[in-house]
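Title: [Solved] Alpha/beta hydrolase 3D structure

Original question kept below for reference.
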Amino acid sequence: MVRKARTRGVLAVLTLILTLLGMQIPGPGGAGTARAADNPAEVVQEVRIDDRTLDVAVRSPRIDGLTHTRWVRLLLPAGWDRDAQRTWPTLWLLHGGGGNHKDWTGNTHVEELAAGRDVIVVMPETSACSGYSDWWNYGKGGAPAWETYLLGELRPLLERTYRAGTDRAAVAGLSMGGQGALKFAAAHPGMFKAAASYSGGVNMLYKSPDGGFSGPDAVKLGGISCLADWKRVWGEPGHPFDTDDPADVRQRSIWERHSPLHQAASLAGTPLYVSYGNGTDSGTGWQWGGPPPSPARCTDPAAHGDEAVERAIFGMNGQLRARLAELRIPATVCASEGTHTWPYWERELVASFPMLMGAVGA
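Solution (posted by the thread starter after getting help):
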């Protein structure tokens, strides 16, 4: 009896802790049963935000932290029903460093943009420095394994539980999410019918020619925002960063494996949209509700702006553009004046949206 009482006490304390963290203990039926035998990810909570917006908490051993849980926000199309006989195509929108599942709905008009489309918009939460990658963790692997979680667990869970289609998906993202979108498309040819990157970190091995902001600087800053050692993500990039020895490459091959620039050949056959600014804030020249963004915005300006991050983005995306041209891989590219901010990213989401929807038949 004493042992049983202690057990009940421990469970009560655990339940209280998880409740304070905003989680639920899965019970018989309902969200807690949304797990297949071969998929460790499970839905532990659902929150209806409005008629079209559903927030879903998913727990997986691939996610680090106390609860091993992250949210995903779903924008649902008209007529959606979890018990429907049909499925819906999906558009995955990936947040940037420091972002979360609420970013796209909080900073753009994506609800209105997708309202007339027969598509489920999937906005997953990772971490401030996820890199949309399975972390190296000093060669030990293990959690967090963001790519495995998102594509190997969350995607089939959404297909099984929320009627997401299995063969019609597109992916887009901003900044770190732009790197993730193109990285996923390259690493999994055919999984996504189109991919778009807005100010994407497409080559984190980029070395600033004038001693300014370089790719590894962003990874190091991300580690600070995550309260994690940045070397856990991909290791160290080696020369010419933090060492003068050309033979000291450290874990450079891991960085290259997660770089859209270095994996560009694998993007062949996937419709691509790539946009980036030069670090100058001259205004978007566009506002929501007006005409579509004009192609005249894509002026290919010189990288003479004051914002360090977008200047680096400009340099690395110029490298990707040249590499795609060398490989004769077509891409819609818009290089314009602009900064690393939401007004420019929303403009490019709107500009690329017809291409993304056309690719998935929505």
